[in-house]
């Protein structure tokens, strides 16, 4: 429809220029080419590799022998470390998303009113998400040291000797990862929800108020439903990022103690680059990819139509 | 505008939240100016009585710290800093340039636009750990391993979905009529895009460029697995310090962390109004 307008006004070929088709090709070719060469090719190589027994310590890549679905069955049936990494990542995701959403929404609602110093505070609250994940991991590693400031505060509150060794106990190490993630990414929820809240049209809200709805009813019955696509997108983005969670954990615990804080990405990284089981690692990665696609599909389905319209 | 004060209760809540938000930033900056004796003091020292810039000196002159009777750092951070600067700038330029063309192509000529958003989105889904494995194999075979060219190629491809998607929302906001007017004036289709579309969305291009730079600058896993001796980036260097010294060089590491963090925070504040749109793929219109 819109295309026709363009063609009619510009009557096919504007003077002295390339044809329409040539322009389209020129515009879209570079992007397509980069995606194909740099993203799709490695994916195909990884897919092929996941059906072989290749490892760089054993043979040249081209000599790898085909093992069918062995890697996949090993992973899903026998590899408890992989299964725990998956479960652990999902648990971390659930806890982090819940906390980030609630805190982010609370802050966003506070920021709906006008008050002095609002724009300065807004910038301050966004700070964490503007820091590199590696730096965040390193900073929290320092904060959680046994003689670090967090333990000083714990001792202040609960008396001397009450401070824990964060990185020596499995549950505490996971808690440290969760705290770090929540600190780092709550600002994203805050930002997205505040932008969403500000974009909510005023008329339905006014109408509800005139019709006698209480502030609580207005919020849950009028504002929240309109915010739904925004909330879903925020959850999808964060879910994807937590499934890829690597940098912070690498700096914070290296997956330890033992494998207590190993996320999916960290486990795959260790498989491939510490143990050199590249084929097996590729299979694990593909399982994760399939899981991700399924998860995203489920999460996005209620708002897909709104999103595909380009958010308009 | 008559901005009011918050009620005391809300002010306390806000103050606490602010303290929690800023404390880690405060800590890393304080550690970066601590002299060696304060690095790992027990109990930890919150504000050094004797702040110093020796940690920043040591980053680029590994022996600077010897004056304090502490062993030198094995490796200068110079290479890592230049590596990060070089790879991030080139990859950002490529990603935004290619993304701009794709964005105009998709928005104005709509090939596959129904599905394109989801395909682009899926580019972000794949766990980097998975894609890193084949990259190492392919790059070893074509001589791109441990080279900036290889790193730049990956950075470009990895951020292309974001730059395309963010720029697409800016092109969409621009009425078609302005381009059509230019074409009626006798400009060719391509020239209309180059001389009308692109200048009109330059604010959006600027925001996208900073956003993509932030992503490239922060990238860790690919540079970790692709760099051996020839190349390095700041995140990799930071991780190496931690490994090599078992965390005894707190101050120097913190100095590098601050150096890595400051440009991103500045850029982040510059584009904060565009961040929500960039990260939600345009689901929020402002």
Task: Write up what this structure looks like.
- The complex is a heterodimer of chains A (312) and B (286).
- Chain A is an all-alpha fold and 312 residues long.
- In chain A, 71% of the residues lie in helices and 0% in strands.
- Chain A has 14 helices and no strands.
- The radius of gyration of chain A is 25 Å and the shape is globular.
- The two termini of chain A are 16 Å apart.
- Chain B contains 13 helices and no strands.
- In chain B, helix 1 packs across helix 12 (250-270) and helix 7 (176-184) packs across helix 8.
- Chain B is globular, with a radius of gyration of 23 Å.
- The model of chain B has no long low-confidence stretch (mean pLDDT 86).
- Chains A and B meet through helix 1, helix 2, helix 5, helix 6 and helix 8 of A and helix 1, helix 3, helix 4, helix 5 and helix 6 of B.
What's a concise summary of this model?
The complex is a heterodimer of chains A (312) and B (286). Chain A has 312 residues and is an all-alpha fold. Chain A is 71% helix and 0% strand.
Supply the CATH superfamily name of the domain at 86-231 in chain B.
Answer: MetI-like
According to CATH, what is the topology of the domain at 86-231 in chain B? MetI-like fold
Which secondary-structure class do the elements of chain A indicate? mainly alpha
What proportion of the residues of chain B is helical, as a percent range?
55-70%
State the CATH class of the domain at 86-231 in chain B.
Mainly Alpha
Compute the number of helices of chain B. 13
Strand content of chain B: under 5%
Please report the two chains with the greatest interface, counting residues with C-beta closer than 8 angstroms to the partner's C-beta: A-B, 113 and 118 residues
The 3D shape of chain A can be described as: globular
Radius of gyration of chain A: 25 Å
What is the overall silhouette of chain B? globular
* CA-atom Rg of chain B in angstroms: 23 Å
Q: Spell out the helices and strands of chain B N to C.
A: HHHHHHHHHHHHH
* Chain oligomer state: heterodimer
């Amino acid at each position: 429809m819109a295309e026709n307008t363009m063609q009619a006004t510009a009557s096919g070929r504007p003077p002295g220029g390339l044809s329409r088709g040539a322009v389209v090709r020129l515009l879209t070719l570079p992007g397509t080419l980069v995606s194909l060469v740099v993203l799709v090719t490695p994916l195909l190589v990884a897919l092929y590799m996941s059906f072989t027994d290749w490892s760089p310590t054993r043979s040249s890549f081209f000599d790898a022998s085909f093992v069918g679905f062995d890697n996949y069955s090993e992973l899903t049936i026998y590899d408890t470390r992989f299964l725990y990494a998956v479960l652990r990542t999902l648990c971390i995701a659930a806890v982090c998303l819940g906390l980030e959403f609630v805190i982010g929404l609370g802050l966003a609602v506070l920021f709906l009113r006008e008050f002095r110093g609002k724009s300065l505070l807004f910038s301050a609250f966004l700070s964490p998400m503007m820091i590199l994940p590696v730096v965040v991991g390193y900073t929290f590693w320092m904060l959680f040291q046994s003689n670090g400031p967090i333990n000083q505060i714990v001792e202040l509150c609960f008396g001397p000797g009450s401070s824990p060794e964060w990185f020596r106990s499995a549950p505490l190490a996971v808690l440290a990862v969760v705290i770090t993630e929540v600190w780092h990414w709550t600002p994203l929820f805050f930002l997205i929800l505040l932008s969403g809240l500000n974009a909510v049209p005023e008329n339905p809200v006014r109408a509800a108020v005139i019709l006698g709805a209480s502030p609580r009813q207005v919020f849950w019955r009028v504002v929240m439903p309109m915010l739904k696509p925004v909330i879903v997108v925020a959850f999808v983005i964060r879910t994807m990022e937590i499934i890829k969670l690597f940098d912070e954990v690498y700096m914070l615990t290296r997956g330890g103690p033992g494998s207590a804080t190993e996320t999916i990405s960290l486990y795959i990284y260790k498989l491939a680059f510490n143990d050199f089981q590249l084929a097996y690692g590729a299979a694990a990665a593909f399982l994760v990819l399939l899981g991700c696609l399924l998860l995203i599909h489920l999460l996005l389905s209620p708002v897909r139509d709104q999103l595909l319209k380009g958010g308009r | 505008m008559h901005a009011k004060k918050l009620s005391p209760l809300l002010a306390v809540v806000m103050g606490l939240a602010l303290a929690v938000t800023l404390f880690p930033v405060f800590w890393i900056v304080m550690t970066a100016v601590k002299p060696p004796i304060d690095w790992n003091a027990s109990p930890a020292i919150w504000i050094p009585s004797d702040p110093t810039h020796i940690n920043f000196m040591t980053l680029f002159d590994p022996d600077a710290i010897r004056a304090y009777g502490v062993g030198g750092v094995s490796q200068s951070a110079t290479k890592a800093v230049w590596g990060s600067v070089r790879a991030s700038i080139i990859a950002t330029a490529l990603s935004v340039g290619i993304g701009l063309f794709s964005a105009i192509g998709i928005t104005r000529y709509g090939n596959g636009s129904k599905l394109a958003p989801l395909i682009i989105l899926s580019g972000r889904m794949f766990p980097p750990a998975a894609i890193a494995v084949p990259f190492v194999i392919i790059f070893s075979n074509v001589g791109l391993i441990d080279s900036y060219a290889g790193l730049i190629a990956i950075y470009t491809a990895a951020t292309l979905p974001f730059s395309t998607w963010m720029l697409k929302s800016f092109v969409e906001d621009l009425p078609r009529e302005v381009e059509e007017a230019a074409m009626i004036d006798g400009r060719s289709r391509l020239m209309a895009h180059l001389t009308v579309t692109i200048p009109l969305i330059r604010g959006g291009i600027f925001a996208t460029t900073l956003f993509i730079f932030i992503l490239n600058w922060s990238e860790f896993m690919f540079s970790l697995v692709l760099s051996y001796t020839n190349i390095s980036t700041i995140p990799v260097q930071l991780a190496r310090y931690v490994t090599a010294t078992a965390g005894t060089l707190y101050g120097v590491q913190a100095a590098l962390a601050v150096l890595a963090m400051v440009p991103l925070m500045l850029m982040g504040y510059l584009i904060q109004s565009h961040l929500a749109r960039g990260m939600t793929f345009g689901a929020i219109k402002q």
